């Protein structure tokens, strides 16, 4: 029994909304905004960014952007003011929050599937679509992946015996670089190169294993999580592109 085919127009509208979402959440939302999000002005600035970006990327179809922004307000409002502080910054809360946003974007795209083809991007939408999905996938893989890995490994950080201090923010940058390379390798159809990346990192991390079991396990958890997230999100981005460019 075959699955019901997905309307390419719906996938196109979803791709535009997805890029608006990841830009608003992971590019234009600074760490200072996250820390002060309980302040009404900061909170509404974020929601306003979602609305502006969604409207722009849909080509001026503000009705869909308004629905998405109101849903974003509700979801973020629950996370910001209702969820207890000790649960708010956990990986589970992050994943549930992002899943709720994705469901909202899917429903909005299903409600008005041809939105992007009716706006001022209609004539160039087929040309612009691959770069839109490419950028959205890259941000999700590299930037959002950093939050996921960081939250997953946070509880192990104090237990890991890493007596020798490294360069400031070097771990974060290494993670971004490795996820960027994985994204590139998978996107261009050379996933076997990921194996060489794993081997290279294993060699470079030999000294960490000498610091003790806790330190080596901490590195392994972070590395495997980073690789798994990068592979999963990159393949999903490629799948979305194939659906969006399919002919009806």
Q: Topology of this structure?
A:
Elements: H1 8-26, H2 31-35, H3 40-57, H4 62-82, H5 85-88, H6 91-111, H7 115-118, H8 125-157, H9 170-187, H10 193-204, H11 206-209, H12 213-244
Helix pairs in contact: 1-3, 1-6, 1-8, 1-12, 3-4, 4-6, 8-9, 8-12, 9-12
Q: How would you sum up this structure, described in words?
A:
This protein has 248 residues and is mainly alpha-helical. It starts with 7 loop residues before the first helix and ends with a helix. It folds into two domains: 8-123, no CATH class; 127-248, no CATH class. The model has no long low-confidence stretch (mean pLDDT 87). Helix 1 (8-26) runs antiparallel to helix 12, helix 3 runs antiparallel to helix 4 and helix 8 (125-157) runs antiparallel to helix 12 (213-244). The chain has twelve helices and no strands.
């Amino acid at each position: 029994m075959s699955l019901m085919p997905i309307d390419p127009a719906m996938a196109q509208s979803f791709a535009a909304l997805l890029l608006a979402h990841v830009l608003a959440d992971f590019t234009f939302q600074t760490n200072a905004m996250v820390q002060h999000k309980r302040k009404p002005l900061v909170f509404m600035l974020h929601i306003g960014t979602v609305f502006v970006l969604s409207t722009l990327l849909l080509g001026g179809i503000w009705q869909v952007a308004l629905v998405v922004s109101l849903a974003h307000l509700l979801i973020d409002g629950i996370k910001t003011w209702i969820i207890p502080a000790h649960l708010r910054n956990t990986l589970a809360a992050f994943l549930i929050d992002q899943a709720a946003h994705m469901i909202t974007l899917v429903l909005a795209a299903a409600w008005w599937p041809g939105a992007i083809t009716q706006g001022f991007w209609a004539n160039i939408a087929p040309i612009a679509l691959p770069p839109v999905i490419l950028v959205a996938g890259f941000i999700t893989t590299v930037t959002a992946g950093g939050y996921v890995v960081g939250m997953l490994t946070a509880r192990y950080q104090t237990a890991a015996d890493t007596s020798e201090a490294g360069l400031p923010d070097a771990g974060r940058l290494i993670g971004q670089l490795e996820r960027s390379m994985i994204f590139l390798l998978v996107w261009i159809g050379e996933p076997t190169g990921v194996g060489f990346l794993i081997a290279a990192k294993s060699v470079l991390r030999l000294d960490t294993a000498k610091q003790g079991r806790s330190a080596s396990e901490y590195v392994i958890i972070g590395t495997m999580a980073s690789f798994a997230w990068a592979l999963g999100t990159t393949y999903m981005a490629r799948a979305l592109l194939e659906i969006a460019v399919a002919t009806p």
